[in-house]
Amino acid sequence: MQVLSQAEEIVLAQFHEERGDRLGADVGQTLPAEAFDALEDKTPGVDIESALRAVVERGLLTFDGSSYALTKDGYSYLYSGHGVAAIT
Q1: Which of 4, 24, 39, 78 could form an S-S bond across to 85 if both were Cys, CB 3.0 to 4.6 Å?
Q2: Would you list the domain boundaries of the chain?
Q3: What local confidence, expressed as pLDDT, does residue 38 receive?
Q4: Which whole-number Å values give the CA distances from 33 to 3, 11, 42, 51, 67, in the listed order?
Q5: Fold topology of 6-87
Q6: Is the pLDDT of residue 24 over 60?
């Protein structure tokens, strides 16, 4: 299993947060790039832009130019016991 930085985990957790604990994230779920701009405002000192690039490079998210989508690998990381969403 991949080991992610705290910033990368924060990025992935946004997919869980968007739908809440009851529904959780879903493979193929998308978030607009602007959602991560707002996240950067909420987490000063955390390099969200670099974290986004890293999780796309790792295949955990895809980016189509305007939104990010959660991949099967990203979903697996979130809910396998390694991601922050697995704790909730």
Answers
A1: 78
A2: 6-87
A3: 85
A4: 24, 11, 15, 13, 5
A5: Arc Repressor Mutant, subunit A (1.10.10)
A6: yes
